[in-house]
Amino acid sequence: MKIYEKAPAKINLMLDVLHKRRDGFHEVEMIMTMVDLADRLEMSELPRDTIFISSQAGYIPLDEKNLAFQAARLIKERYDVRTGVHIHLDKKIPVAAGLAGGSSDAAATLRGLNRLWRLNIPDQELQELGAELGSDVPFCITGGTALATGRGEKLTPMPNPPQCWVILAKPPINVSTADVYGRFRSDKIVRHPSAAKMEQAIRNQSFTEVCGQMGNVLEDVTLKLYPEVQHLKDAMIRLGADGVLMSGSGPTVFGLVSKESKVARIYNGLRGFCKEVYAVRMLT
Ligand code: ATP
Question: What are the catalytic residues?
């Protein structure tokens, strides 16, 4: 028996960091949604009690460091499953990009194995399992659009933003999420984005208001460390994207575009100097 799952990338329409907690994590407020750029996972039962990961991508770990492996091990242990599984990862989401690719693979693994092994675990419980693997995993279980608080694991679902094009560009640098959070100083932030205002913009289904409320306080750190991310933002704005923001801790920059007629020009303009560019639809 084989099960297929799609693991889409997430973007943050807004990201605010409130303060550092006693446990070392930061208290955040984020509105996240998904885009139609996705990894595909194929899960098949193995006769032996083992977890085997394969991928066409030569640049990700295939051992217990892989988040899909960790998700499979967690669900197997917690529900005492004695059969093995082969998970093939067809990677499309750029790695270490601020798009939660690994987290989405982990979530897709939990969803897929829940079906493959007929465990009937409710979403809420899958989300609790996911929180043990990473802060973005609970959101990736159900996807859609949500306000995430706490360290990102407390979710309040909300309506999807108005449909539009999303152009993503990843400069060829690796950004460590831990390093960005480590350097973040909330007292240096002049303007915090507002989750309440972004939520209202989404409820109004106003594309212009959504673009106007976009903000990510982590840009303050990443753009200073990596000027190429700032250049990418400037280029996207110059080429005519309606709202431009860095996703997560970066380095991927995304632009929201309402008119299809603008998409090719922005895409081609960026491709002139950036190898990894994608033009996709918002997943609504
Ligand atoms: P986030 O936005 O949650 O910080 P990210 O998009 O920046 O995530 P990922 O693509 O999830 O980062 O990869 C981060 C690290 O996790 C990489 O160093 C990678 O080697 C490792 N990793 C483990 N499992 C996976 C996986 N299934 N896919 C991609 N990377 C993985």
Answer: 10, 136
Q: Is the CB of 250 under 6 A from ligand 1?
A: no
Tell me if the bond preceding 94 is cis, omega within 30° of 0: no
pTM (two decimals): 0.95
Contact indicator for 243, 210 with CB cutoff of 8 Å: yes
Q: How many residues does the chain have?
A: 284
Tens of pLDDT, residues 135-187:
999 999 999 999 999 989 899 999 999 999 999 999 999 899 999 999 999 88
Sheet containing 243-246: give its strands across.
243-246, 253-257, 165-170, 276-281
Return the pLDDT at 284.
83
Among candidate residues 46, 35, 41, 38, the one with its CA nearest the CA of residue 71: 41
57 is known to lie in a ligand binding site: no
Do 277 and 169 meet the contact criterion of CB atoms below 8 Å apart? yes
Contacts of 12 (CB under 8 A, 6+ apart): 30, 31, 32, 216, 245, 247, 248
Give the residue whose CA is nearest to atom 1 of ligand 1: 100
| Closest atom of ligand 1 relative to the 99 alpha carbon | 6
Separation CA 136–CA 138 (nearest Å) = 6
Which domains are delineated in the chain?
2-158 (3.30.230.10), 165-281 (3.30.70.890)
Closest C-alpha among 183, 238, 245, 191 to residue 219: 245
Q: Tell me the per-residue pLDDT of 199-238, one tens digit each, with 9 for 90 and over.
A: 999 999 999 999 999 999 999 999 999 999 999 999 999 9
- 101 labelled binding-site residue: yes
Q: Is the CB of 98 under 6 A from ligand 1?
A: yes
Atom of ligand 1 at shortest range from CA of 103:
11
Q: Ligand 1 pocket, 179 CB below 6 A? A: no
